[in-house]
From TrEMBL:
Gene from which this protein is expressed: lepa
Its job: Key player in the regulation of energy balance and body weight control. Once released into the circulation, has central and peripheral effects by binding LEPR, found in many tissues, which results in the activation of several major signaling pathways.
Locations listed in the record: Secreted
GO cellular component: extracellular region
InterPro entries reported in the protein's UniProt record: 4_helix_cytokine-like_core (IPR009079), Leptin (IPR000065)
Pfam families: Leptin
Protein name: Leptin
Principal location listed in the UniProt entry: secreted
Amino acid sequence: MKYSVNPLCFCSWVLLSVCHSIPVLDDKVKNDAKLLVQTTIIRIQKHTSELKVSPNIIISGLDVIPASPPLDGLRSVDETLDIFHLILSKLPMNNVDQILADLFNIQVIIKALARSINCELPEPRNTSNLQNFLQNNSMFHITIGNVALDRLQKYLHKLFINFHELGKC
């Protein structure tokens, strides 16, 4: 008899065991996270290759989408991923469900790494300006979505390269 395993359930089970079981080496967790970051970058490249938008496009207010946030530690990474997750989940875009799931899973790993070094992550910050921007510019959701995906891809690439430096809160 064959058993079907839902990938999201399996990933959640694995991450749950990482978070609540015998401590796992941070290097193993970081390597798994790097693999997930790399996979997400590839998914974004595939998604954005279908509909390219000029990176020079000017829409007032795009500064609410992080352009090149620093990697100051686990807190800043978690906060930045929260912002990208909010943007992509609020826009009516097709085929971003897997990217959103990947972002969520990267955040779970970031939170687990933070707990492993006793780093308390703050509550998500006030995003009313971002939500107002998304609501007021909803007619430009394709452009905003592609700008957000482009910036997320660049941020994840920077995160991938510098993941070994994320040992601080």
